[in-house]
Design goal:
Layout (H helix, E strand, L loop, with lengths): L1 E5 L4 E5 L8 H9 L1 H5 L5 E5 L3 H6 L2 E6 L3 E5 L1 E2 L2 E2 L7 H15 L11
Parallel strand pairs: 2-3
Antiparallel strand pairs: 1-2, 1-4, 4-5, 6-7
Length: 113
């Protein structure tokens, strides 16, 4: 799993991958989020050295992973993140990831009970 934050300046930041594995979900999310910079939802997408203080002060904090795609973090270390509710960028990210998965219909496998 990987984390990402949305700063109060609408930056989508993920920790630099020099000490952690580059997750496929967060990497794909960084690609899919590019149009959100063009439409003004995000100001930029970047890798950064994210401090604990930046995580506390984030407008949104998210966890990315293959099993669950993206999950909002509304409380961290007992502190409320943003307004304490899943944010609008989280909802856009989840929709972008789900749409991306559905767009590859020929790669989907039907599972029967």
């Amino acid at each position: 799993e990987n984390i990402g934050i949305i700063t109060n300046r609408n930056e989508f930041l993920v920790p630099s991958f020099n000490a952690v594995l580059r997750g496929t979900t967060v990497t794909r999310m960084m690609e899919l989020a590019a149009p959100l910079v063009a439409d003004g939802t995000l100001s930029r997408i970047a890798e950064a050295q994210i401090t604990v203080q930046q995580a506390y002060e984030a407008a949104e904090l998210m966890v990315f992973g293959t099993t669950f795609d993206v999950l909002p973090v509304v409380q961290y270390d007992g502190r409320t993140i943003g307004d304490g509710e899943p944010g609008p960028v989280y909802r856009r990210f989840l929709q972008l990831l789900r749409d991306d998965m559905r767009s590859c219909g020929e790669m989907l496998t039907t599972v029967t009970a």
